[in-house]
Structures are given as C-alpha cells and as structure tokens.
C-alpha cells in the first residue's frame, strides 16, 4: 500500500488473473485439501467451542512479528487437525460449502493462499482452522437467523439502530465502504457474545455487497470523531482484527483511521504492535476530507465526513414474516438437493482438473461450467438458509447477485439521486447465459472428435 494513493484492483493472484506458477499452487491447494477430506473419518468425536481467551487486553500477543507468525502457524496446524477430529469430513465439507455460498471456490482458496504467502500447507491449515472456528462459533446459524432471529440477543438490534456501523457506497475501484462510528460504541451496551455475533453478522452481510468480478475487499473508515476513553474496547478491536486476519483473510483493502484525537496516539502505540503485520500495514491515518477522497469519490462519501452524498443511515425495521421461505421445508430440501448435485459435479471436475495436464482446455472448461451453475443456483437456495437483513430491506441486495447503492445529492430545493447498480457479471442471469454458451462449446468440441 502506497500512502496517499488509492489501491487499484489486483493484476494477478486472483481468479482469472493467475500466472502458471499460481495456477499450479492452486491445484496443489485443492489436492491437499481433498486428501485431508478423503483420509478423515466421516463422523467426528463431537465438536465444542474452543475456550474463550482470557487475554482480552492483548498482553499475551507477541510484539515481534516473526513470533506472531510462528504462533499463528502452530495454532492453525492444531486447529486444522482438530477440525477433522471433532467434526469429521461430512460436517467439515458442509461447513465449507456454506462458507463458499455464492462465491467462486477458487476465490476463497486463493485468499488463504495469498494470506500465507503461497505456502500450500500453511494455506490449507489456515482454511481448516477457519472452518473449525465457523463450526464452533455457529456462524452459519447466525446468518441463517438473520436480524429477525437475532433480535432478542442482548443489544444486537440496538447496535444496528444507532448506526454504529453500516456499509454504504463504493470506493474509487468499486469496493464497498464500511463505516464505523467509534463514538457510538459503548462496551456495556451489549454482552460480549452479542457483540461478537454482531461483528460476524456484519462480516457475512458485507460479502453479499461485493458487486462485480474482482471485487472482494472492503475499504473501512473508522470515524474517530468524538472518540474518548469510554469508547475504547480492546476485546472488540482484537476480535475485528482477528476476523480480518484469520477468518476473512485478504478481505481488507485499507483501514482509514479518520480524525483521531490526541488521546488515541497513546492507545495506538500500545495497539499497533499487537496487530497482525498484514492488517497493520493497511492502516492509514486520515485527518481531513482531502485524505479520504484519495480513496473514496466525494459524491460517494457521506456528508458528515465531508462528502456530498446526502445519504443517511436509517435502520429499516424488521418486516414480520420476511424469513417465511425458511418455513418451507419442502422447498428447502429441493433447493438443497439441486445444490448438492452441482457441488458433487464441481468436486469431480476439480479432481479431474488436478490430474489433467497444465493447459488442458477441456478440464478447465468443465470446471468453469460447474462453477457457473453452482453459483447461479445458490441464489435459489439463499432465501431458505439466510435470514433477511437491513441491506435486503433497503434494496442494496437484490437477491440475484446485483448490488445497488444510492447517492442522493441536494440540487437546489430538490434532492436527486444517483443509482449505482453493480455485479452484472456476477448475477444469476449472466452466469446462466455463460453456462449455456459453455455447454454448447463443450458439445461442439465433443462432436468434432
């Protein structure tokens, strides 16, 4: 990251932009992951949540970056082994596919590979450790409940109502902007468990707002205006950083610490050494609107931070019955059955692709077809397994892969809006059309032989 410059989208290391060496690493990743799955017992011994850390102040986190790396690697290896021992391969793979959701599985695999500097064994261990955390923390249960199902969790809805954090608009390269207004946070407004569930729910919700191929990171704005010691919450900060580093790796573009008061300087001296170096290197201090518009177009930036967008966060109340599809057990079984068949086809295509010679066009194309079909079908399954949230009710999440943001601007006495629709190349309709074309190509290729 270069200070004073916006980060462009990557030119390699992502789906569709891999070097031959990176493609080979991706194949090795899948080969190792599937080997572990094949060799693991189908059923586990019974998973349980890891004991909560008593190090809420970060005192036990090594300050030396190399020591941090060694500690992480050792813990991830232990967690990877435990994932299969405790849960077995059946639950492991069910969790894996829920984690993939509407995404390209290679995109997820590449996140973990990049996070571990293209070390296959370390990347696979990191993914397995992440899945163990998801299973032990009931992540799928949290986003399946949605806001309606979580409304009785202490302080959960209140955090949304006060606008402590929300996602609105995109940066200069189309990445969603996550605003966090730190002065609105009070440590005791919610239980520690509810706070972690809230953070998880926000992380999962933002994944639905990646609009377009190549958009898989967020720009975070920590608005420190009005910050005081009463707003400082070590546990919350360390959990957010842990999520960004270990559970949703390679999902942060830049973290803008905006308008921090002098009291934060002392806190930052204590906090910075605790942070993962990858996350720490993405932190940038900003003091004014000019610093922010380096990364965010002024008409996308909310007005309180100096932008021209009149958009304001207003929590849309839960609509009774908005999760009615979840009660349709028959519909869910049918959608899940279709998904399972497509996942099996993808797994077979992936195993064939691993064995194929480099550059085998047919193996590549069959796998790409399987990806398109499983991703398109996910949007049919989604209402049965994901509870609705504010971004559904506000119209940001359309439900077919499209993402919509509104940028209202005052024009005289009239309020006019710019509507930004993103994700056409990731929409269900586009992927189905692409899959149909690819099927024709494969059929014609088979006839030619």
């Amino acid at each position: 990251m270069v200070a004073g410059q916006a980060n462009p989208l990557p030119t390699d290391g992502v789906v569709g932009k891999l070097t031959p060496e990176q493609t080979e690493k991706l194949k090795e990743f899948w080969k190792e992951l599937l080997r572990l799955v094949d060799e693991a017992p189908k059923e586990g011994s019974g998973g349980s949540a890891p004991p909560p850390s008593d190090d809420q102040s970060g005192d036990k986190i090594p300050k030396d970056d190399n020591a941090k790396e060694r500690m992480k690697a050792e813990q991830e290896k232990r967690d990877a082994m435990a994932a299969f021992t405790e849960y077995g391969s059946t639950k492991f793979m069910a969790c894996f596919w829920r984690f993939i959701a509407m995404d390209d599985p290679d995109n997820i695999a590449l996140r973990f590979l990049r996070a571990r500097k293209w070390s296959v064994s370390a990347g696979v261990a990191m993914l397995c450790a992440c899945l163990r955390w998801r299973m032990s923390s009931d992540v799928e249960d949290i986003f399946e409940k949605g806001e309606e199902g979580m409304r009785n969790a202490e302080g959960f809805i209140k955090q949304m109502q006060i606008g402590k954090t929300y996602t609105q608009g995109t940066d200069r390269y189309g990445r969603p902007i996550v605003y966090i207004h730190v002065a609105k946070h009070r440590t005791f407004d919610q239980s520690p468990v509810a706070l972690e569930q809230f953070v998880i729910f926000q992380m999962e919700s933002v994944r639905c707002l990646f609009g377009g191929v190549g958009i898989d990171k967020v720009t975070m704005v920590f608005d420190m205006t009005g910050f005081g010691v009463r707003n400082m919450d070590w546990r919350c900060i360390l959990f957010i950083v842990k999520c960004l580093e270990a559970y949703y790796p390679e999902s942060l573009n830049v973290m803008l610490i905006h308008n921090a008061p002098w009291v934060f300087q002392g806190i930052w001296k204590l906090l910075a050494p605790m942070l993962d170096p990858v996350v720490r290197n993405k932190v940038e201090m900003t003091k004014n609107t000019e610093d922010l518009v380096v990364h965010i177009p002024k008409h996308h930036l909310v007005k309180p931070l100096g932008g021209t967008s009149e958009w304001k966060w207003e929590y849309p109340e839960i609509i009774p019955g908005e999760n009615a599809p979840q009660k349709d057990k028959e519909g869910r079984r049918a959608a899940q059955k279709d998904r399972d068949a497509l996942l099996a086809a993808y797994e077979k295509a992936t195993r064939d692709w691993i064995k194929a010679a480099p550059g085998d066009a047919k193996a590549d194309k069959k796998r790409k077809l399987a990806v398109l079909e499983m991703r398109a079908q996910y949007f049919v399954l989604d209402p049965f397994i994901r509870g609705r949230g504010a971004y559904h009710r506000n119209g940001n999440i359309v439900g077919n892969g499209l993402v919509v943001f509104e940028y209202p601007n005052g024009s005289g006495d009239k309020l006019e809006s710019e509507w930004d629709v993103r994700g056409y190349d990731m929409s269900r309709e586009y992927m189905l059309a692409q899959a149909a074309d690819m099927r024709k190509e494969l059929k014609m290729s088979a006839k030619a032989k």
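The chain has 15 helices and seven strands. The longest strand covers residues 403-411.
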